[in-house]
Amino acid sequence: MATSTSSSWSQLRQQARSLESQTDSLFHTYSSFVSNPAAKPSEAELQTESQLQEILQKRETVVSSLSRLLDSETTLTSSATKLQNLSLHRSTLTDHRREFVRLKGTISESRSRTHLLSSVRDDINAFRSASRIEEGRSEADYMLDERDRIDNSHNVADSVLSQAYAIQSDFMDQRQLLGNINRRIVHSASQIPGINTIIAKINTRKKRDSVILAGLIAACLLMVLWFR
């Protein structure tokens, strides 16, 4: 019975040490996902995480088996040594469980941080793209406004020119009308007997009056200069 118990203990301890070694190897693989996590857990990450959970569960079963086996022994000396070994396996299992939880949380935080940085980067790019579109739109609106102002200026100039042409046409019509009236007056005057003689006498009298007025003014100036 003692030999059978000792053999079972050795096999369980060997299995526990093997599982601990596999756990260390999986931790090394699992920790590689901390530095550069994907946006979503990859298949390799999920597989490593599943293997760790499975091995930790197996180790829990082995430690429980070692504990039950130790409880069945009666030898104090061997029991004390085995109790120390059992405590070591149980302590290592607890440490590995904490390490697994820590690594899993670190990977999750790193993934969230990477996702946040990616979201901020996408927002910045979207803002820059929207700003470029808005600048292009503003420039296009400015060009359209400028074209509208130029078109309005052309319309005003066309309106002013049209009014000027209309006024010029009215002046030409009035000039032509006055010319026709003048010709009619001259023609009518030529048809009245003696009108030319009367007009010539009027012109002669006007010239004579002008000469008399000029002479009178000259005499007044001479008298003023003389009596000074």
Automatic annotation (TrEMBL):
<keyword id="KW-0653">Protein transport</keyword>
<dbReference type="GO" id="GO:0000139">
    <property type="term" value="C:Golgi membrane"/>
</dbReference>
<dbReference type="InterPro" id="IPR023601">
    <property type="entry name" value="Golgi_SNAP_su1"/>
</dbReference>
<dbReference type="GO" id="GO:0005801">
    <property type="term" value="C:cis-Golgi network"/>
</dbReference>
<keyword id="KW-0813">Transport</keyword>
<comment type="similarity">
    <text>Belongs to the GOSR1 family.</text>
</comment>
<dbReference type="GO" id="GO:0005797">
    <property type="term" value="C:Golgi medial cisterna"/>
</dbReference>
<dbReference type="GO" id="GO:0006888">
    <property type="term" value="P:endoplasmic reticulum to Golgi vesicle-mediated transport"/>
</dbReference>
<dbReference type="GO" id="GO:0015031">
    <property type="term" value="P:protein transport"/>
</dbReference>
<dbReference type="GO" id="GO:0006906">
    <property type="term" value="P:vesicle fusion"/>
</dbReference>
<keyword id="KW-0931">ER-Golgi transport</keyword>
<keyword id="KW-0333">Golgi apparatus</keyword>
<dbReference type="GO" id="GO:0005484">
    <property type="term" value="F:SNAP receptor activity"/>
</dbReference>
<comment type="subunit">
    <text>Component of several multiprotein Golgi SNARE complexes.</text>
</comment>
<feature type="transmembrane region" description="Helical">
    <location>
        <begin position="210"/>
        <end position="227"/>
    </location>
</feature>
<dbReference type="GO" id="GO:0031201">
    <property type="term" value="C:SNARE complex"/>
</dbReference>
<dbReference type="Pfam" id="PF12352">
    <property type="entry name" value="V-SNARE_C"/>
</dbReference>
<dbReference type="GO" id="GO:0048219">
    <property type="term" value="P:inter-Golgi cisterna vesicle-mediated transport"/>
</dbReference>
<comment type="function">
    <text>Involved in transport from the ER to the Golgi apparatus as well as in intra-Golgi transport. It belongs to a super-family of proteins called t-SNAREs or soluble NSF (N-ethylmaleimide-sensitive factor) attachment protein receptor.</text>
</comment>
<keyword id="KW-0812">Transmembrane</keyword>
<keyword id="KW-0472">Membrane</keyword>
<protein>
    <recommendedName>
        <fullName>Golgi SNAP receptor complex member 1</fullName>
    </recommendedName>
</protein>
<keyword id="KW-1133">Transmembrane helix</keyword>
